[in-house]
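User: Fold this; tokens only.

Assistant: Input:
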Amino acid sequence: MAQFGNTGTSVSIKQAYFKWNADEKLQFTVGQFGTHIGYEVVDAPDNFNYSLSYLFGNGPFYHVGLKADYTFNDKWSGMLGLLNGWDHIIDNNHAKTLAAQLRFEPNDNAILYLNYIGGNEDPTSFTGDTLADFKQMIDLTASTAVGERFTVGINSAFGLYHVEATPYKNWWGTALYLQYAVVNNFKIGARYEYFNDEQAVQYLGTSYSGFTLTGSIETANGHVFIKPEFRLDNAKNAIYSKGNDWAKNQRTFGIAVVGRF
């Protein structure tokens, strides 16, 4: 999924970028890098839940472009970037997509991100000389530690899409993440999410709610994680394959082994 839109040898490349520290506060990045949108990321070891949420799965995964990060002080920092759209190595039109982020860290245990992305993202447009086709999203992500063992995270996003003379369409969603360290090498986490794409801007064309329960067993000095996971998906319409029929819900269970090197 992190390689969505890639073809040929680029499928094997997840990130390839160059960073330059202009000074202690300003940093430039150019190349292909993971998106700033969302609570979850494309690297499996950095997510507690193994399966991705619908909220993250319907946002961008990576970008190609240039971005600048600036640290204002020990609590506030920000980012601005120009990108080749969403999940595009080579832009399909003349327009660039604007990316922005504002980060706030009130203390060592909490962080908040306010993210934005917007630009000409009509996949059928190869000109991009106007903003007649415009796709944008605003995203809020936050996490905080409650004591030494409990972590709470939230992610909410709202997207808006406009194609020439057609009415504006939107999609939106929110997710809550809870994680608890039972012992030093075993944690358990729950994710509840709601995602609404009833106007079919993305690909679902329906609304969805889901619950995911994941365990994480740390082995090999923190290099290997065993993750049993139960997931319950529910949709307003029958979108899940069930034998020769379709259903409005599905239950899945799996065990993943994730390595970090």
